[in-house]
Amino acid sequence: MALQEDSLWYKDAVIYQLHVRTFCDSNADGIGDFVGLTQRLDYLQELGTTAIWLLPFYPSPLRDDGYDIADYTTVHPSYGTLEDFKTFLSAAHNRGIRVIIEMVMNHTSDQHPWFQEARSSRDNPKRDWYVWSETDTKYQGVRIIFLDTEMSNWTWDPVSKSYYWHRFFSHQPDLNFDNPAVFEATWEVMKFWLDMGIDGFRLDAVPYLVEREGTSCENLPETHAVIKEIRKRLDATYPGKMLLAEANQWPADVRAYFGEGDEFHAAFHFPLMPRMFMAVKLEDRKPIIEILDQTPAIPENCQWCIFLRNHDELTLEMVTNVERDYMYDEYATDKTMRINLGIRRRLAPMMENDRRRIELLNGLLMSMPGTPIIYYGDEIGMGDNIYLGDRNGVRTPMQWNGGTNAGFSFADPEQLYSPLISNSVYGYQVVNVDSQKRSNHSLLSWMKALIRTRNSYRVFSRGTMEFLRPSNHRVLAYVRELGNEKILVVNNLSCSAQAVELDLQRYKGYIPIEMFGRNLFPKFGELPYLLTLGPYQFYWFRLRRI
Amino acid sequence: MADETYLSDDLLRQLMSVGEVDLLVGILSHSSANTMRAAARSIENSLQQNFVRQRVAIISVDGGAVEDAASEDSVDPQTEGIAFSKGITSLRTIHRITAGFNSAPSAGLALRTILASSDLLRAKACAVVSPATSSTSPDWIANLLRPAFRDSFDFVAPMYSRHKFQGLLARNLLYPMTRALFGRRIRELYSDEWGFSNRLGAYCLTQDVWHEEPIRTRPEAWMGISAMTGPDFRCCQVFLGEKPQPPAGSGPDIVEALRQTVGSLFWCLETHQSVWLGRNGSEPVATIGPDHAVSAEPMDLDRARMFEMFQSGVKQLEPILHTILSSETHTNIQTVATLDQQTFRFGTDLWVKILYDFASAYHHSVINRDHLVQALVPLYRGKIYSFLMEHSDSSPGDMEAEGENLCLEFERQKPYLIEKWKAGVEVKS
User: Fold this and answer.
1) What mean pLDDT do residues B158-172 have?
2) Cβ of B80 and A278 within 8 Å?
3) Mean local confidence (pLDDT), A234-254
4) CA separation (Å) from A225 to A142, A259, A540, B294, B416?
5) In chain B, N or C: fewer CB atoms in 10 Å?
6) Of B93, B94, B97, B98, which to mutate for an interface test with A (greatest number of A Cβ within 10 Å)?
7) Cα B398 from chain centroid?
8) The one catalytic residue among A68, A84, A102, A204
9) What is the mean pLDDT of residues A518-541?
């Protein structure tokens, strides 16, 4: 199955996010690698995913899970070789799966040769590749992102006896994009991977590329200029490749990163994610409607990327203080579950392993506007380990079967890069791919059906959305529409059965066909359409006029 | 629930959509649509700020104005609450429900509708307010709800800062008499706004009283008295600040006010006699905020006219008063009615005896009960005239002390009422 030629492929994609290290270990060293990942591509194809987003796999001291890159143009030896990567890429493409890789432009590891050179001497040609200062008082008032670990955005470098700027960890110095040489070096890195055939980049920490005194040093026009230039070169040389922005900002601010369709192809919708969780806990659609009402329209060739969980904490930066307190109280009662401004938990434990709620949230993910991203393991309901440091609790080995090391590795268990989840609820003995493949009613089988249904109708990925606003606030209902394709989605956000009357007068005469069972429901008429839904139940109806 | 038939299909449909709530605010509206909208906004803002996580609904009960108000607000048909206040803090949808009737429902039916809605929605706490007189303080509605919602109180009475000559009926009659008889020191039982728990709401809903005239017209005190006399209900009062005064002429005149309030109180004496007959003295209830506040701004009252109406009333109603009052009391009132304005004083002893005679006469139905209550009006005017004369220069502290003395006189003379209540009608020649 070859890749379909479509420059807007990212709009129709179902993306699977994984870290090579976590997925499958082929050489029994306890660490996942590209050979192992390649062996598991059939699984991802069966699941229905059409793109893989790989977390950083570059050489790195791994003090920030690979986001501290020490060499941009090769593979970390623990994960294999460049040849292994090329083999994986080819195998993925052969299965119709595209590959998106990380591009961390904002900063490098302090172990990167560029930084080593820059700090070696104030006269070094690479000195100006980073942001230096004689004092730590420049850019006062700029927020600190990693509040739990960093006291300042400046760190003293004892080697060159000056301060360097970093928005993240102190071992991640920010590159200086005011220096054209930095931009050219970055573009060379991108070309290196594009020439190899990758399909897109997820650009990390985009809002922070450029600094200016008296500003928040976020979302500056100079930053947008950098992105525009990259996009221009990409379109000219590598058509069909995509750029995905990581900009944890309010929708109105993220909107700028789409430009006039000449910056990013796609961007994460960060504020929507916590509100989906909030809506289910509150049993009230208000948080979702509010944030989507505030979301501006984006250019035709652009797309939001939406997700439930990812490799980071469930970020609560884009919520109000009241909302954050509520999320903490409801989803992170144990303070160990909290990190920075977020919650380091996986989907299933947050839903208390309630299959209905897990399904409802995945139903929302697959039916709302945007390209859905599934975090590895969430499709089988993997658990987490909040007692591991940082965000490692949601980065444990993939659980393939109930055997040795969950089928992840043949190494000694002690040798694994991370302990397995082994408790009685989420442990690999009970939650694993093989056991779920054996049941047509498992979460995995259900997810496959869900994704298959989504992939069958382009209206989900490209259609408009209009909220119906029934008086029952526990029901979130919307119509997706693309040409003649019309889908009605009705979600019961509450733990109890609900009745709802929907005003579907403008669809009078249409027959709703339930999309999973393909059963006909009574056609719409003049009167409000009455539906009853069980706890956390949702319907997807295809609307047909026959 | 005793009877659901008075709930319309439309209301039930709205309740179904709301589901379960933590808090319900009922608006008893006899006001214009504009007043209604302003009150609804004020309430919603208070709820948005004070109950950000709770499930909340607002129900408006009326016969016409509310429908207009609802349609005006229908620009936001989803009742998401967005339209009212930007920078909202509440996490949830705040629902607005309209219980519309073809014509203005009685106060009793409106309250019953709110109680039934509260019961169906399983509200943990409920507040009833009137848009015409409700405070606009942002914390006002929260203060009414919080004791029932958070502190397990069943009945929450309001308290206000008043001018010393405001609230004369409550100060001279309703408060001291209910305090003496029911044994709980709740100052504002006859108020347009109060809060209650789901337990008290459900209890009241099941009482077979809803077709009684006193309940149809003034059900609020009955609810408070039910809390004072019912099984283990906890009462408190909460300070709400200054009591906004309704526009002049918008409320009932003094005759109607007495008919409604005193009529309701006397009716409650009958229905709750098994309790009050056995109670002695009175107990304070928990008070949140200052226990009273009186200001001393000047206020214009036509005292001469008041005195004139007292004297003429006593003269005209002499035969009726003769039937109602004890011989001694009757003689005393005839005597004081002959005094001139300067020397006239209406003593507390005489005032208490009169009221207890009236209550007893109401109980024994010596004359038509409605006529009986109306006969109290001139005597009340005389008492108030005397009160105004005595306190023209009194400080708020003096007023409070005098008020307390009156309460104690009601308590001291309670055995007199009990004796008359239990005895037959005094036969007069």
Assistant:
1) 87
2) no
3) 94
4) 21, 10, 42, 67, 93
5) C
6) B93
7) 25
8) A204
9) 96
Q: What is the pLDDT of residue B137?
A: 65
Side-chain-side CA neighbours of B408 within 13 Å: the count stands at: 6
How far is residue B144's CA from residue B140's CA, in Å, rounded to a whole number? 7
- B91 and A290 within 8 Å at the Cβ level: the answer is no
Alpha-carbon distance A108 to A427, whole Å? 36
Considering only CA atoms, which of B190, B247, B193 is closest in space to residue B217? B190
Which residues in chain B have Cβ-Cβ distances shorter than 8 Å to A466? none
Q: Average pLDDT of A457-484? A: 97
Distances (CA, A) of B183 to A374, B196, B214, B270: 66, 19, 22, 16
Looking from the CA of A93 toward its CB, the CA atoms found within 13 Å total 13
- Decide if pLDDT at B82 tops 70: no
CB pair distance less than 8 Å for B93 and A499: no
A452-468 tens-digit pLDDT: 999 999 999 999 999 99
Q: Which of B77, B89, B93 is facing A322, going by the closest CB pair?
A: B89
Cβ atoms within 10 Å of B252's Cβ, excluding its own: 13
**pLDDT tens, residue by residue, B314-370:** 999 999 999 999 999 999 999 999 999 889 999 999 999 999 999 999 999 999 999
Q: What is the mean pLDDT of residues A193-197?
A: 98
Within an 8 Å CB–CB cutoff, is residue A355 touching chain B? no
What the block records as the tokens of B409 is: 């006189």
pLDDT at residue B219 greater than cutoff 80: yes
Q: What is the pLDDT of residue B294?
A: 62
Spatial distance between the Cα atoms of B57 and B22, rounded to a whole number of angstroms: 8
Six-digit token string for A241: 């490749």
Q: What is the DSSP string of B146-196?
A: HHHHHS--SEEEEEEEEETTSSHHIIIIIHHHHHHHH-EE-S--S-S-EEE
Min distance B64 CA to chain A CA atoms (Å) = 22
- Cβ contacts of A282 on chain B, cutoff 8 Å: 53, 91-92
How many contacts (CB atoms, under 8 Å) link A and B?
Answer: 60
